[in-house]
Amino acid sequence: MRTYTNVFDLGDLNAALAEAFEIKQDRYKYEALGKHKTCLLIFFNNSLRTRLSTQKAARNLGMDVIVLDVNQGAWKLETERGVIMDGDKSEHLLEAIPVMGSYCDIIGVRSFARFENREDDYTEKILNQFIQYSGRPVFSMEAATGHPLQAFADLITIEEYKKKERPKVVLTWAPHPRALPQAVPNSFADFMNEANVDFVITHPEGYELDPKFVRDAKVEYNQMKAFEGADFIYAKNWACPGVICPEDYGKVLSKDMGWTVDEAHMAVTDNAFFMHCLPVRRNMIVTDGVIEAPTSLVIPEAANREISATVVLKRMLQAL
Ligand code: CP
């Protein structure tokens, strides 16, 4: 595997899941693979789970790890070509990327949507420059439009907890005070569309996700109706994706607390499990009662981030 940016990079999902469960049985089984190999993790944005789980995964495989927080201690980077660099940015990404590539064997990049320009975000301008200019295999640790390590961990979790061959999985928008990217819901939709699940997306009007991620999913604007009979509720906020009104891209169109996942919503499900990628704003996205219930999977879901990252890094090491 040379890149990991979406579900299709994994190929056969059943084979990827089998590998995940093999690694879960013995996470050090492939520790010889990474000897004298270095994984560089580059963060343009904050992280708790991705930062820790991906380092743990690399170490499971015997790799050395370097973590760079671009905004803390590195030179401020210019990302636009053609700019006269007479401002506060001392280094251009086009030099920085191959330099970073020269110190490692595999690169992970976290670079969120900037909400300045939809096209830049949706063409993954930053991530793709790493893929093009680093000379190394590159994996996304959440880029502008996708978070495939999270979605793979989510799928592993659904496989572990499902009680039906084909469960009903609902992705629901929920309110948040700030504008958040669409990376998590996009990748979750990407994976659910390839998985053996009955997949429904629910959100207020104006929050339509990009059709390349929605694909064949059922979109239901009535949240309660969407929840009926569900086996898994996956909550997430996202800002306006700008599909219907491009000028609204990145805006917060609603903070309707009627969309908070509470006990009344969960009561119409089939005793559904609750999922969220974390970090989560309690009593905005989900009530204390729902996230603390025995049916909440947020902790095992986060733990599975180590497993999804180990599978991805293992495959990248095997392809070096
Ligand atoms: N879910 C997730 O990616 O968490 P972090 O932002 O803390 O890495």
Shape: globular
Query: How would a crystallographer describe the biggest sheet?
Result: 5 strands, parallel
Query: How many DSSP H or I helices?
Result: 12
Euclidean distance between termini CA atoms: 8 Å
Elements, N to C (H/E): EHEHEEEHEHHEHEHEHEHEHEHH
Bound molecules: phosphoric acid mono(formamide)ester
Backbone CA Rg: 20 Å
Q: How do the strands of the widest beta sheet line up side by side?
A: 1-7-6-2-3
What integer is the average pLDDT? 97
Beta-strand fraction estimate: 5-15%
Output the keywords.
single chain; 320 residues; alpha/beta; five-stranded parallel β-sheet; 12 helices; 12 strands; 36% helix; 15% strand; binds phosphoric acid mono(formamide)ester
What is this structure, in a nutshell?
The protein is of the alpha/beta class.
What does it look like?
This protein is of the alpha/beta class and 320 residues long. Helices cover 36% and strands 15% of the residues. The chain has twelve helices and twelve strands. It has helices at 13-25, 49-60, 93-102, 118-122, 125-133, 148-161, 183-194, 211-214, 223-227, 263-267, 288-292, 298-318; strands spanning 3-4, 38-43, 64-69, 77-78, 91-92, 106-110, 138-140, 168-173, 198-202, 218-219, 232-236, 273-275. It has a five-stranded parallel β-sheet, sandwiched between helices. It has a five-stranded parallel β-sheet with strand order 10-9-8-11-12. A two-stranded parallel sheet has the order 4-5. Helix 2 (49-60) links the parallel strand 2 and strand 3 (64-69). Helix 2 crosses helix 12 (298-318) and helix 6 packs across helix 7. The longest helix is centred in the last third of the chain and has 21 residues, at 298-318. It is globular, with a radius of gyration of 20 Å. The N and C termini lie close together (8 Å). Phosphoric acid mono(formamide)ester is lined by residues 47-50, 142, 150, 277-279.
